[in-house]
Design goal:
Blueprint lengths: L7 E5 L2 H11 L6 E8 L6 H15 L5 E4 L7 E4 L2 E3 L4 E5 L10 H11 L12 E7 L6 E8 L6 H15 L10 E3 L9 H4 L6 H8 L20 E8 L1 H13 L4 H15 L7 E9 L17 E9 L6 H16 L6 H4 L6 H6 L10 E8 L9 E9 L8 E7 L5 E8 L5 H21 L1
Parallel strand pairs: 6-7, 11-13, 13-15
Antiparallel strand pairs: 1-4, 2-8, 2-14, 3-4, 5-9, 7-8, 10-16, 11-12, 15-16
Helix pairs in contact: 2-4, 7-12, 8-9, 8-12
């Protein structure tokens, strides 16, 4: 059915999609981002190549022209925009690094922080946007920021977007791209719960329904509150540090994700007074491994879950704890997607009321780690991803610190630290980053 504005009603949001839409509507959490530095052919303009690629992707992926509406109700749904004007969603910034640090890292962090404080509000525009940074002193490279509403896709999907872009931009230019693109009539992919049964036991349901408070000795920062102003800072591990951490994790029979999560926990403990004896950590996990066709690794959608675990106070990082972390992750995934918070969402009649009652209370988790792994190997294209950075908004109603991890083709593991201003202090984040890097250096040196 087509509305007066030309949009076409598609389908109702799934429970996880509704969760993201409710959070953004209430100003609790806004968006997610994936930023890549690309190599490009000298003398080839980025804009026409990018617009050609985007026009093809919009036709291939109907979610790119879908936006959630009726966010203030218990039954929000997607509608399709009749067209997308690319110049309204793609911005170009030139000579961005003139007065900044040599690698542009400080500037990039500042731009991402600004992006993660900008909500998607205009119902005539898609709920994704791109910002391209170009610098005349490096004509063989550019940086592309992709910012998306989380109801449209998870970060694995955002990585697929970047990989498709590099392939399409590398194709020979056979036509001049249009600025305005008509949108496809194809149906959206199904939501998570229509693809896979998210089993919730009675015991888990009762635990989630009960009012939960963390123990007094568990650090959870300041109680949950709005408004949210996101702060962001990145940390890059060198190629030697990244390779060393991966090699040591394998040698110690654990995973990079488990080692990273343990490193973050021990680094947070180092910044806390001794009265804090425990930390709860959340770990985001992809659920695509459980999903049938038509969902593939490259499908665009929101197919993530999470699991939680508690750490006792550590003087420093240790591999025993990292192995224990991997064991917990493996055990939870072996249960399928049962008894995960994403499954509980289907048992909440009014997500607005459920979310609002959290405000003023202590949160459960100190931090959350989301690691999307390593960018697949180079395909020797003319436009090609080299480094990459995963980032997201802070959230008023979940972990106090969010750490987003990804490893680029340049061999650098990039960590994006997000926190809410007034909830966590910036100097604490800097202390955590410094401690984590020192711990990794020690592991690599003595490995």
């Amino acid at each position: 059915m087509e509305s007066e504005t030309g949009t076409t009603a598609l389908r109702q949001l799934g429970h996880a999609e509704k969760y993201s839409t409710t959070r953004s509507h209430l100003g609790i959490y806004l968006n997610v981002g994936l930023t890549a530095r690309y190599k490009r052919p000298r003398g080839v303009a980025v804009k026409p190549a990018l617009f050609r690629a985007l026009s093809q992707m919009i036709w291939k992926h109907p979610i790119l022209s879908a936006i959630p509406i009726a966010a203030d109700t218990t039954s929000p749904y997607f509608v399709r925009l009749p067209y997308i004007t690319l110049s309204k969603v793609v911005a170009f910034v030139e000579d961005y690094g003139n007065s900044l640090s040599s690698d542009g890292r400080e500037y990039l962090d500042n731009v991402l922080e600004e992006q993660h404080n900008r909500p998607f509000k205009d119902p005539t525009l898609p709920f994704w946007r791109i910002c391209v940074l170009e610098y005349s002193k490096t004509p063989t490279h550019f940086t592309l920021m992709l910012i998306v509403h989380h109801s449209l896709m998870d970060t694995q999907s955002a990585l697929s977007v970047h990989e498709e872009l590099e392939g399409l931009m590398s194709q020979d230019a056979r036509y001049e791209p249009d600025d305005t693109i008509d949108t496809p009539s194809a149906s959206l992919l199904p939501p998570l719960e229509d693809l896979y049964t998210l089993t919730v036991s009675q015991e888990f349901l009762e635990s989630q329904n009960a009012h939960q408070e963390p123990p007094p000795d568990s650090w959870t920062a300041v109680p949950q509150s709005t408004p949210v102003r996101t702060r962001f800072s990145s940390l890059l591990l060198s190629t030697a540090e990244t390779m060393g951490l991966a090699a040591m994790s394998k040698k110690e029979q654990t995973s990079v994700t488990a080692a990273l999560q343990t490193l973050i926990a021990s680094s947070i403990f180092s910044a806390l007074p001794s009265r804090y004896r425990t930390l709860q950590a959340d770990c985001a996990v992809s659920l695509r491994r459980f999903l049938p066709e038509p969902i593939r690794a490259t499908s665009l959608g929101c197919y993530v879950g999470s699991l939680s675990m508690t750490y006792g106070r550590m003087v420093s990082f240790n591999w025993t704890e990292a192995r224990h972390t991997k064991t917990i992750i493996d055990q939870e995934l072996a249960k399928g997607a049962s008894d995960m918070p994403v499954g509980y969402l289907g048992h909440i009649p009014d997500q607005h009321a459920w979310m609002l009652q959290k405000l003023g209370r202590r949160r459960m988790s100190a931090f959350e780690l989301s690691n999307i792994g390593k960018v697949p190997a180079s395909r020797k294209l003319s436009f090609e991803i080299e480094s990459i950075l995963f980032s997201q908004s802070a959230s008023a109603c979940s972990a106090a610190i969010k750490v987003s991890a990804v490893t680029g083709r340049d061999g650098l593991l990039a960590l994006g630290f997000t926190w809410q201003e007034g909830i966590v202090e910036a100097n604490m984040i800097e202390q955590i980053k410094q401690t984590l890097k020192c711990e990794v250096d020690k592991l690599v040196l003595h490995g």
